[in-house]
Structures are given as C-alpha cells and as structure tokens.
Design brief:
21 helices, mainly alpha
Length: 430
C-alpha cells in the first residue's frame, strides 16, 4: 500500500506502537490501545474501539489542519524585538530562497519552497514565485519540511513528490495572504496549477477557498477533481456531502475512490446507501475504499453488503471488509468471518481473526483454535490475541491473558485503517 501523490499526506494509523511523529500533516501513530476492564463493563468492546478510532481520526485531522496556524502565531510572537542584524540576515535568507526557486536542480527548488513555508507570514513576498512554481511537476523523492525548514529523510513507503507540491504546501504555511493568489490561479489553463491550488485551498480556512474547491468538482481534468474530493473532506458546509455523493458516480475511478475516502470523514448517515452501491463498483480500488468508509460509519445497514464483500474477487477488498465488520456491534457477521479464516490470502485470515476477537463470540473459539496452526505467523498471533479477548469477555479474566493482552506488541493492530490523501492499492491484477 502506498500513499497518494500529495505533498502533505495525512496518514493516521491505529496500531500498537509507542512512536509518535509530530511534524505537520505527516504520519502519526497512536500508542497501543489499553483495555480498561472497568470500562468494558459499561461499554461493549466494539463500541469502545469505534469511539477510540473516531476520536483518534478527528484528533489527527485537527492536528494536521491546526499546526500551520499555531506555528504562524508562534513565529509572529518570536519576531517581536528582533535585532536589526537579525532582520537583515532574515531578509537575505528570504531573498536567497526566492532565488533558489528558479534553480536548475528540482531538489533545490523543492527545498527552497520548504524553507519559505517554514518562514510563515514573513515569506509573503515569495508568494508570486511560489505560485509560479505550482506548475513544476518534476518528479523527485518526497521530502517533508519540518520546523525551521530542515529536511527529514522520506519514509520508505512514500511515493514521489514535486517542487510544485512543495510550493503548494509552502503557500498553506504562509497562510491567509496566499488565498487570493491561489483562488486566481485555480482557473489556470494548466491542470497542474489547478490541482495544486485546489489541494492548498482544501486546507486553508477561508470562504473563498470553499467556493473555489466546489467549482473544481466540475473540472475537465480528473486529477483536479480528485484533489477537489480530497479537499472537501476538510470543509464544513451543507453542500459538501451531497457533492461528494455525486462524485461517487464520476467517470474516473480515481475520483470515485477519493470521494469515498472523504465521505468516511463526514459524520452524517446520508452517504451510507451511496457507499453501499460503491461496494459494487467495477474498480476494486473504489470497492476497497468504500469498505473502509463503511467501517467508520456506525450504521448496521452496511453489515450485509460488507458480508457479501468477503467474497469479493479482490483480496484487498475482502481484507478491508473483514476489518469493517469487526467494528460492527452485532453478531450477524460471526459465521461469515469464521468462514473467512480459511481465505487463501493470509491478510484476510488475519483480519478476520482480529474482527472475531472484537466480536467476543464463543462460536468462533473452535475456528480460532484451528487458526493457531495457520502457516503464517501473523495469523497465529492474531488468533491467539482474539481468543484472549473472547475469554475476557466471557468473564474468564485470567491474569496471564490480561498481562499478554497489554504487553503483546507482536499483534498487528493497524486494522487496515489508512487515512491517506488516496488509499492507493494496486488491485488491478487481483
């Protein structure tokens, strides 16, 4: 699974991990989910996990969107009482980075954009040059810009970026002064400019940004429409959900997939039926994304369609359906999930074991015991984890079970919960 093409990919995974990444708009991982036994007496396990996932997702998106504003405020405060010498040095650095935006080396152009973004509102004079750079789609290794414009080595799983995408990120960091110029170029003849401008306007909080993104939904180029779908996930307006539902019928599968992703982040139930329809899309990537979205929706209308998706021809869709069913509180899916423990792909078997553990249904014990002999270690470990959960839920709270449940860092708890600009899964061959 790889990330989408945007400069600041928002990636939030719920997994057992003790690492945090706090750079804006970048990968964040939650600490492992601890079971509070007193809470389990009041809140069913599945509902508890859903609450954790939704709260974590909301926090992750809030963090990504609010970081730039917080850093701009900090930079303004730090600028008070700066010495004339420091002002002169800062001005020279600003001019140097603007000059480097025209370097023959695309890596230097991208790095200059990064450093200008880190300057925040002080880089307002660079806006015209950054706007000009939006059309630069020269491929290069993705880098992220951290505090003070320092480079961080790219994550091995992330794809390529471009100076144009870094320019869009810089314009977001500069803030409100970028909105007008971005709105103006959102109607450019160059699709690359329109796409990067739409992406940036998706993050910036301004009424003009919303209207421009809504206009981009009708763009003639699917790459711009896909950016518009992504951007709408962060906009609060009564027109947004209806617009995204309409985009589930777009002629480009990439746009339909992005619309499904965005709808997962909307709290209304209006999109349930359209997402169920998307589970039957001709493109496996769209079906995969629809299953993910339905997993986040607390609506039981999705249960039977997700059960049917356990038989999908794509192994990725089957795995995502198993994950989604694990978050549904009723027992309808127990027997289908037991059957999925015999799927030909190990990831589906592992995901089904995880879901059965959350169900806590004793009917799964025999099948999970059999899975302890699975040929793949991740399946065996997850089956063992699931059996411990079932014993705890049944009242058999062995101290050994409780200790292992808290300490077992080997169980893969990412639960297929990937929140990316796109969830890019190449399933065309499966």
């Amino acid at each position: 699974m790889t990330c989408g093409p945007d400069a600041l990919t928002i990636r939030l995974q719920a997994r057992e991990s003790k690492r945090y990444r706090s750079a804006p708009g970048q990968e964040r991982r939650l600490s492992h989910i601890e079971l509070n036994l007193s809470a389990l007496k009041v809140i069913p396990m599945t509902k508890r996990l859903v609450l954790v996932l939704v709260a974590s997702l909301s926090f992750g998106l809030w963090f990504a969107l609010s970081t730039a504003e917080g850093k701009r405020a900090a930079r303004m405060e730090a600028a008070v009482n700066v010495s004339p010498q420091n002002n002169a040095d800062a001005s020279n650095d600003l001019n140097e980075q603007i000059r480097l935006l025209e370097s023959a080396d695309p890596a230097l152009r991208a790095q200059a954009a990064c450093k200008l973004g880190a300057m925040g509102e002080r880089a307002v004079p660079a806006i015209p040059a950054l706007i000009k750079l939006l059309s630069d789609d020269t491929p290069g290794q993705r880098y992220y810009c951290e505090e003070k414009g320092n480079w961080r080595a790219p994550h091995k799983d992330l794809d390529k970026s471009s100076p144009g995408e870094q320019a869009a990120a810089a314009l977001v960091m500069i803030g409100e002064a970028s909105v007008g110029p971005l709105v103006a170029v959102a109607k450019s003849d160059d699709w690359r400019v329109r796409a990067n401008a739409t992406w940036a306007l998706g993050i910036l909080k301004d009424p003009r940004a919303l209207e421009t993104v809504l206009d981009a939904v009708r763009d003639q180029d699917w790459r711009v429409r896909a950016k518009a779908a992504w951007a709408l996930a962060f906009k609060r307006d009564k027109r947004v959900s209806n617009t995204l539902v309409g985009m589930l019928k777009d002629s480009a599968s990439q746009v339909r997939r992005q619309a499904a992703w965005a709808l997962a982040l909307k709290g209304d139930a209006y999109s349930i039926e359209p997402l169920i329809v998307a589970l039957r899309d001709e493109d496996a990537n769209v079906r995969h994304q629809a299953a993910w979205a339905l997993g986040l929706k607390g609506d039981y209308r999705a249960v039977e369609p997700l059960i049917a998706a356990l038989q999908d021809q794509s192994k990725f869709v089957r795995s995502q359906a198993a994950w989604a069913l694990g978050l549904k509180g009723n027992s309808t899916a127990v027997l289908p999930l037991i059957a999925a423990l015999k799927d030909e792909w190990a990831r589906v078997r592992q995901q089904s074991a995880w879901a059965l553990g959350l169900k806590g249904d004793s009917r799964a014990v025999e099948a999970l015991n059999a899975a302890l002999s699975d040929s793949e270690e991740p399946v065996r470990k997850t089956a063992e984890w699931a059996l411990r959960l079932i014993r705890i839920k049944s009242g058999d709270r062995r101290q050994d079970d409780l200790r292992k449940l808290d300490e077992d860092d080997d169980v893969d708890m990412d639960m297929d919960m990937d929140v990316d600009v796109n969830v890019e899964v190449d399933v065309s061959r499966h």
